[in-house]
Design brief:
With 550 residues, this protein is of the alpha+beta class. The protein has 18 helices and 21 strands.
Length: 550
């Protein structure tokens, strides 16, 4: 993983000192809230429904064990003993006092963590595959290029005040686990005629006006990555709308002028800077690569005896089949840690759990942890011989729920319990759904289903691309929920279709259950997934069943 140098550490400390003075002036009254707002947003500080919220970037989702301990320390010392992992591979702390924010930031900075550009109209944290550098699917570690983008975009003078926030995601695997097609820019690393480069996808995004991104260049040689990104951002910055916040994202610009015209403008801009200072030669790429410390993998073989014996335990076998994936190095595995226990808030982890995960990463996973788009955690490099012991330890922590990718593995925003923008609650609904589908055998029979919940049209829970999407709306001061079917966030991304009128909170769990019961009855065989059945049958059979009892 990337190791910070002295320049990085000095820069973060200087930023903390600057923010400490800004907080001092806010507390003394020298700055009012409106004057303080742009300053705090540059450091990832939001004013939510009840308190300030601190969002910390986890670049490309990678954490060291010590960084996880730093997050646990902040949760314990400054917050209410927990943190919330998000779909953008960040973590949020919801209850830190304003006067203590600089101290919390200083503690995080010592671990190489910060909130820079996790808010505001700038280039946000670049996200990627949580299985990067571990999965045998990929052609190269995409985090290398995510780090190059991070260094280029941090405090970029031209792109600090864009028309709206800007998000980039990158993957190098055939199966997209980073949802690149619903980002402002999505990058797919692949090869053409033996050369490594990127498919460039632009104009994706969810929220009030959702779009799946359009490919504007099938293959961009990797040496031109930064100059082409610069051309895209310049095109957006020059032509993006600043008169209407709801029409300010790049997806609106691409939609209004058309993909062909947008591409023409980008190519015209790129022609002027293509071979200039932003060109990445091999030396520049190797210099970044040198900052990444790869694990010193043990020489092991697959399927060690201790693992084979452990599979005789049905509980371990269920977890292994659900939460463990193949690794590129023999004798190793990728482990997903579900942060979706029955009745728990999706994506939350306590300080004790974070400390314990850090210890487990040191013992079993070469000290490395990842944050996944689905609000789970990943240990990317686990020795297969250690899987049984790891499982037992996770089980004691309440972190061995074998529901990864199943109906109770719910993505949800914080909703009206925390967010001042929300119309409805997300967390209690997610908790009720996990309770309804707590039976592991039933959930396994239903199979792979992605259920996403957003508390408002801003779509922080990515409901548009859930196999089942749930959107909270307000009707006559009551919480209602719209339901969509058929969305996907992977390499075949598509937006879900609305099945009908919104239903009150009290009916949502029953409606979801009726939809899934219909699927079990209508599927061609247990091997036909829910999303495949929806694509084959359309939404009408599910709509009919969903509203049958009303």
């Amino acid at each position: 993983m990337y190791v910070y140098d002295e320049f990085d550490r000095t820069f973060l400390q200087e930023r903390v000192d600057e923010f400490r003075d800004q907080v001092r002036r806010r507390l003394s009254g020298e700055l009012n809230e409106e004057e303080f707002k742009p300053l705090r947003l540059m450091n990832g500080v939001y004013l939510q429904l009840h308190a300030y919220m601190l969002r910390i970037a986890i670049p490309y989702g990678t954490l060291s064990a010590d960084q996880m301990r730093a997050l646990a320390h902040v949760a314990r010392r400054y917050d209410r003993n927990y943190g919330h992992f998000t779909t953008r591979q960040n973590i949020q702390f919801n209850w830190i006092k304003l006067e203590e924010l600089p101290d919390a930031m200083a503690d995080l900075a010592r671990a190489g963590l910060h909130g820079l550009q996790t808010s505001g109209n700038c280039i946000r944290n670049t996200t990627t595959d949580p299985w990067a550098a571990a999965t045998p699917e990929e052609i190269e570690d995409p985090r290398l290029y995510a780090e190059i983008i991070r260094q280029w975009s941090t405090l970029h003078p031209e792109f600090t005040y864009l028309p709206r926030k800007f998000k980039i995601a990158i993957t190098a695997a055939k199966h997209d686990r980073a949802a690149i097609r619903v980002h402002d820019i999505g990058l797919r690393l692949h090869q053409s005629d033996g050369e490594t480069g990127f498919e460039v996808i632009v104009g994706g995004g969810l929220g009030r006006t959702p779009f799946v991104g359009k490919t504007i260049r099938e293959f961009l040689p990797r040496h031109h990555l930064l100059s082409y990104l610069e051309a895209v951002l310049r095109t957006y910055n020059a032509g993006g709308r600043r008169d209407n916040i709801y029409k300010a994202r790049i997806k609106i610009q691409v939609h209004e002028i058309g993909t062909e015209e947008f591409t023409r403008r980008v190519e015209e801009e790129w022609a002027q800077i293509k071979d200039g200072a932003l060109t990445l030669d091999d030396a520049a790429i190797d210099a970044i690569r040198a900052h990444f410390k790869e694990p010193d993998f043990e020489a092991l073989t697959d399927e060690p005896e201790v693992l084979v014996a452990a599979k005789a335990d049905s509980a371990f076998a269920r977890w292994f089949g659900n939460s463990v994936a193949p690794h590129k190095v023999p004798g190793h595995a990728i482990v997903t840690i579900s942060l979706k226990p029955v009745g728990g808030p999706p994506g939350d982890a306590t300080a004790e759990q974070m400390d314990a995960i850090a210890d487990l990463a040191d013992r079993f996973a070469y000290g490395e942890i990842r944050v996944a788009h689905e609000q789970n955690l990943t240990l990317p490099h686990v020795r297969q011989k250690d899987l049984p012991e790891l499982w037992r330890a996770l089980d004691k922590l309440g972190l061995a729920t074998p529901n990864v990718g199943l109906i109770s593995d719910i993505i949800a925003c914080p909703g009206l319990d925390y967010c001042s923008l929300a119309n409805a609650r997300s967390i209690p609904l997610a908790q009720d759904l996990t309770k309804r589908f707590a039976d592991h055998e039933r959930a396994a029979d239903i199979g792979r289903v992605h259920l996403n919940i957003s508390g408002c049209i801003n779509a922080c829970g990515h409901h548009h691309v859930g196999h089942i999407g749930i959107l909270g709306v307000e009707k006559k001061d009551e919480e209602f929920y719209q339901i969509t079917l058929g969305g996907k966030a992977n390499h075949k991304a598509r937006l879900g279709e609305l099945i009908g009128p919104a239903v009150p909170e009290s009916e949502v769990v029953d409606v979801v259950e009726r939809i899934l019961d219909a699927y079990v009855e209508l599927r061609q065989s247990p091997s036909e997934t829910f999303i495949a059945a929806v694509q084959r049958l359309g939404i009408e059979p599910f709509k009919e069943r969903a509203y049958a009892a009303r």
